[in-house]
Amino acid sequence: MTTRRTRPAPRPPEGTPPRAELARQARAVLADAVRIAHWAAGTPGPGTAAPLAAQALERAATALELSPAQVRAGWDRARLAGLVELHGDTARPGWRLRAWDRDDSAVLRGWVALFDAWSLVHAAPEGIEAGAVAEAVEAVPQVLSLLQLSAGPVTVPALLDLLGQRVAELHEERCEVPLGPGRATPAASAVPPETAADRAAASAGPARSADLNGLLLDWALEGLAAVGALTLGKGQATLTPLGNWAVWVKLEQICVAAQSPAGNIEQSAADMLLGCARLTPGPARDEYRAWLAARTVGSAVAELLAVARGEDALLRGLAFEALRVVGAPAEPEVRAVLAEPSLRPYALLWLAEYEGNDPDDAQDVLSREEATWLWVDTAAAVADHGETGLLVRHLDSAVQGTVPALLDEVRAVGHPRTVQVLVALAAAHPDPALAKAVRRAAFQVHTGGV
Fold first, then answer.
1. Collapsing DSSP states into helix, strand and coil, what is residue 174?
2. pTM for the structure as a whole
3. Is 449 in a helix, a strand, or coil?
4. What share of the chain is helix, strand, coil (3-state, %, to 5)?
5. How far apart are CA 335 and CA 347, in angstroms?
6. Are the CB atoms for 368 and 356 separated by under 8 Å?
7. ω before 12 within 30° of 0 (cis)?
8. More confident call, 210 vs 314
């Protein structure tokens, strides 16, 4: 038996308002978005898709006494904050909207989702290459860190200097070393003349680079101000209490990643999930967050889904538990695996919970066959990694209600582990008659009989 030291719960910086006050400020930032979300949720039929259709835009502006521009901005914020969810051409209230008036944590999570999406709220300047915009977005966390550590106003020149340094570091990390005079890239002749000219102009010299960085910094500061993360003064920027708290939360996540409680941060997804298998849900989620914080979202989701496609049913279930911690960024990839029979039940449950269904009711989204397949897969995980008593108790979770009905449908569902599950269940069950029936079913599946 080992003793693990747990990291004490971190305390926010001195002067940070209580969570109730932060939530009040977040509600104020998203007030128009909440009004529009309520309006959209109560407006059945088409016309509330993204972007908001012209007819719906006019109806909303009239009903809410807002300008069309305010409605359009509020609609985008409602979607980004998870206040509304789109299902085809219909908008439905998100779970955060239903909890908005009573759950401060839901409000703060909604605002943080908006904060993370600041670059979508405020359109990037026209005429700038997407790569330069992406570099600015990647460099903004360092800018925010400086603002948070300064605990007060920071001049724009200081922020611009930091942005330029971070962009240069990104270029160095990617080995993007500028070529000397008279040297050309091997593929230069294949580049269309207009693109080559544009790129040459973009890298014409330090003065142009500084101008570009200045333009991108202005855009980033305006975008962050638009979501309520900072305020802009004459030649300076200051984090709001909400912005200061959010940056502190992000820095704490990095600290958690660096001090992964169970030491799984550097492991592969499969090894990390195995390391979490014996943890209770709370510590397991802490491990998932630490592991995820050390990776890009895209690579982490891809690695977790690759593990889920493997033969270990326990890892399949745990992979989707980790994906629940990822949340909204994983939704497109989870939806894409619905066509894979082995992942479909897990993906359906994940999506049902993501869309606001109570976890206890999420099983209703599964067909009888999908629920049976999931029962066998879970039983396989228990047989491989659990205790025999747990496998016997797993019988009670079957949707069929009776063992004969369960055996009939298990035989038909075609799960590759059906025989092993039935054999393990027969060996574990204390009722000789029932065990005999289960063994007979295992033999019939094995031999292809009925």
1. coil
2. 0.55
3. coil
4. 65, 5, 30
5. 7
6. no
7. no
8. 314
Residue type, 356: G
Q: Please tell me the distance from the alpha carbon of residue 121 to that of residue 361, in angstroms, as a whole number.
A: 34
Q: Which residues of 345-364 are buried (b: 16+ CB within 10 A; e: fewer)?
A: bbbbbbbbbbebbeeeebbe
Q: Read off the tokens for 102.
A: 């009573």
Lowest mean pLDDT among 83-87, 107-111, 133-137, 423-427: 83-87
Size of the chain in residues:
450
pLDDT of residue 209: 72
- Inter-residue contact 165 to 217 (CB < 8 Å): no
CA distance between the termini of the chain: 49
- Whether the per-residue pLDDT at 262 is higher than 60: the answer is no
Element (H, E) at 109: helix 104-116
User: How far from the centroid of its chain's Cα atoms is residue 56's Cα?
Assistant: 29
Beta bridge partners of 87: 90
Instruction: Confirm if 22 and 229 have CB atoms less than 8 A apart.
Output: no
For residues 60, 61, 63, 66, the Cα torsion angle rounded to the nearest 10 degrees is 130
